[in-house]
Amino acid sequence: SESYYNGLGYGDSDCGMSSSSSSWPKLLIRGGTVVNAHHQEVADVYVEDGIVVSVKPNIQVHDDVTVIDATGKYVMPGGIDPHTHLAMEFMGTVTVDDFFSGQAAALAGGTTMHIDFVIPVNGSLTAGFEAYKVKAKDSCMDYGLHMAITKWDESVARDMEVMVKERGINSFKFFLAYKDALMISDELFLQGLKKCKSLGALAMVHAENGDAVAEGQKRMMELGITGPEGHALSRPPELEGEATGRAIHLAGFVNTPLYVVHVMSIDALDEIAKAKRSGQRVIGEPVISGLVLDDSKLWDPDFTTASMYVMSPPLRKSGHNRALQAALTTGVLQLVGTDHCTFNSTQKALGIDDFRKIPNGVNGIEERMHLLWDSMVESGMISVTDYVRITSTECARIFNIYPRKGAILAGSDADIIVLNPNSTFELSATSHHSRSDTNVYEGRTGKGKVEVTIAGGRVVWRHGELNVVPGSGRYIEMPPFGHLFDGIDKADASYLSSLHAPVKRGKVTT
Ligand code: URP
Ligand code: ZN
Ligand code: ZN
Ligand code: ZN
């Protein structure tokens, strides 16, 4: 049985969906410009049982089919957010958005799938995975899971194998920051990289030098800089650049692909660009906050305002954001996440006397699609096909779920948005769907509006109303050995053959 969610201000009281409750409606999205990463054309999209059945002009249907007119609008694959933290226990508290509220917000903003990070429980991967399956049981959109590796021993190595072979996880995140919490040493990182390679799983890295950050934090506290600005000052771009370069070099040494999460600075960007120039397989993921915000608000005299902007790696001086956008246009960076990790102002106030205690994280799951459209498509930096690639297709390819996700092709899941380029959006905590009482994009307006979101063949967002079903979201298993692993074995073989046989030497004679 389905219950249509109507609480907590999602939509108004009259919006229970009246159509059949156990089967999917048949849908025709008519007359829009259908955009995939490689091609766009004016066409209709016909959807049945949650799957795209056909994409072509002038599809004729019977009157039991719900028709959505998309004339003059873009019909695109729903966004996939590669980086979120819903219901995450972190820094002594829990994010306000759980899987249900975070996903509802995502759907209202045109994102139809996200990949969250399982945090192990007392270092146990299996316990962490089980905990996240419980957290995600009320999901209203499809989701996948990455897993964080926070310690290393034989049981972790064994569990990584179980996660990949039996639980649908194909990516592991290593933290080079958060000393005395999530951080691991280079020694353990190397073990993890080797294990990832053998399993065909993608290694992901939070790249900041955690030892130096701890030193920087001590320095700021000693100087009496205890407010949110101390957060940025204590962990400058150099520490991100250093850790990014180190992670890249170690992944190169092991010869396994690397995914750098939340690239926030030119320093990190330069390391990624250099590695790519040499042919190394490195993926850089900027997040929407890093692309469109800067660090200036951290100096706001009002603590509630300033603390909203505390995240790690921190927002940087203006200029880094523009460089990150430029890198997206040239392919040095390939996809955009959010790092959606929301805390209320009361939770942020845990750090009122000490910036080290401000829970790290900002919102973005609902805002990413609109902000990226406005700042990069509307400004002429990227094409609409690029937009689809950056917000959806690339993520699906990297995590090996393309073309089920990330495309509008016959046979793909019906995760579809209709965006009106002539409409406008406005972002505010008073109208957003996150449970957070603040929004780092407060008051921002722009061009382009997601008017319809279809998730798994259901219309979940239309006429400014959400119609979401707890439990309708599915766990999407992500298989190992995605395309980034193609040819790795050949490169290893040619490396080995280049070494020559060990030099034969006789006995040492004196
Ligand atoms: O500030 C952040 N990024 N919070 C979430 C945890 C992480 O490092 O991704
Ligand atoms: Zn209504
Ligand atoms: Zn991180
Ligand atoms: Zn994160």
Automatic annotation (TrEMBL):
Recorded catalytic activity of this chain's protein: 5,6-dihydrouracil + H2O = 3-(carbamoylamino)propanoate + H(+)
UniProt domain Amidohydrolase-related: residue ranges: 74-460
A GO term for molecular function: dihydropyrimidinase activity
Residues bearing PTM N6-carboxylysine: 173
Names of the cofactor(s): Zn(2+)
EC nos: 3.5.2.2
Domain of life: Eukaryota
InterPro entries listed in its UniProt record: Amidohydro-rel (IPR006680), Hydantoinase/dihydroPyrase (IPR011778), Metal-dep_hydrolase_composite (IPR011059), Metal_Hydrolase (IPR032466), Metallo-dep_Hydrolases_sf (IPR050378)
Post-translational modification: Carbamylation allows a single lysine to coordinate two divalent metal cations.
Cited Pfam families: Amidohydro_1
GO cellular component: cytosol
GO biological process, one term: pyrimidine nucleobase catabolic process
Enzyme class: hydrolase
UniProt keyword list: Hydrolase, Membrane, Metal-binding, Transmembrane, Transmembrane helix, Zinc
Subunit organization: Homotetramer.
Recorded family membership: Belongs to the metallo-dependent hydrolases superfamily. Hydantoinase/dihydropyrimidinase family.
Protein name: dihydropyrimidinase
Organism of this sequence: Stephania cephalantha
